[in-house]
Amino acid sequence: MTPAQNNRLRRVAVISVHTSPLAQPGTGDAGGMNVYVLQSALQLARRGVEVEIFTRATSSSDEPVVEAAPGVLVRNVVAGPFEGLDKHDLPTQLCAFTAGVLREEAHHEPGHYDLVHSHYWLSGQVGWLARDRWGVPLVHTAHTLAAVKNAALAEGDTPEPVARQIGEQQVVAEADRLVTNTADEAGQLVDIYGADPNRIDVVAPGADLTRYRPGDRAAARAELGLDPHELIVTFVGRIQPLKAPDVLLRAAAALSERDPELPLRVVVVGGPSGTGLERPDSLIELAATLGIAARVTFLPPQPPDRLAQVYRASDVVAVPSYSESFGLVALEAQACGTPVVAADVGGLGVAVSGGETGLLVPGHRTDDWAAALGSLLRDPDRLAEMARNAPKHAANFSWEHTADGLLESYRRAVAGYRVNTELTARRGRGPWKLRRLGSVRA
Ligand code: UDP
To answer: What family is this (predicted)?
Structure first.
């Protein structure tokens, strides 16, 4: 009997095709998913489950295998050119990538992996085949969904292609279990993608609470060269239309116009990504056009310890995204004792406790955002109370909790696997029906 059949997990193959857990998040294709994959792997390894993460090599200097920590290996699979392959062209490399994953497994004794966990739909396609070849369950986390993203596009943003939603739908149909960040996301999988609600596990992501914790604001500002007396509102994340840093700049401009004495500073941390890549300086240009260039400080992507100082240095962190499956930045900021003003979309309504640890703003109108930010910045007592509440709320979300939830999902996947295999053998897997792709704008 293999360990998987025995319900004891020894080793998990994690698939993260399009972005490496070792990449610096906050620019290009690297963001919350990278942090999620690495942090959950570290926690699983601490619980005695080895994790091997397969990702695409993006540099000729990438070693084939890197030990990220004891029990966590990152395998850099060569599939396509190292540099210059656009994320939208990655589907062309899925065959090569899958071949790399299957060949690696073939070097080991049968039963080397007890389970496959895929992140994002591209990885789901790879995990699906690996699952069938290895005879182990597939757990899939979508992270974002094309249909949901397309329903909340920023003006001028490019819709996700129909092919992606078809690919997502295939993975949803094939995966033994699906993991979502929130109950709302589980509902979307059921309503839009036709997922079986009994195969979904809601597991909230977390923040590294040992790193992201309250600290001395004055010291943080001194370290970052920021003025000790200004009111600082910070945006952290990839610079792309979906993340809507322009909404913050417009609100800041409106606030400054109405109240020129308000000592406001906007700090923007991150690098261009996705549909922001073709004009990397567009946000700098917007600040100049709005007449607030002198009030905006741009910082490149920051490593975690320095990012914690950025959060501590800020009076408010703004997360104006049009769509957000959770919003790790909101959690991390609160863990550092900084209130968050966030768009009331996706997981942000879970990540932020509206009225207690920050404000949830419906929509993206400049006036609403200026009013929300202004109401906090002009009310130091309320801001201080929210700052006190914020770390308590963030303490509900840790990577330890996430790993516990994932392990539970893995156990269910393993326990249900034999039953599924028997059912599948009787009924066959297909042909399954595609749901109407009603919410996709082509
Ligand atoms: N991040 C970082 N340095 C930066 C900007 C972002 O390490 O300069 C990390 C941040 O700590 C967070 C992640 O990138 O963990 C962004 O995750 P989030 O869920 O907020 O957004 P996503 O990238 O998933 O859309």
So the answer is: Belongs to the glycosyltransferase group 1 family. MshA subfamily.
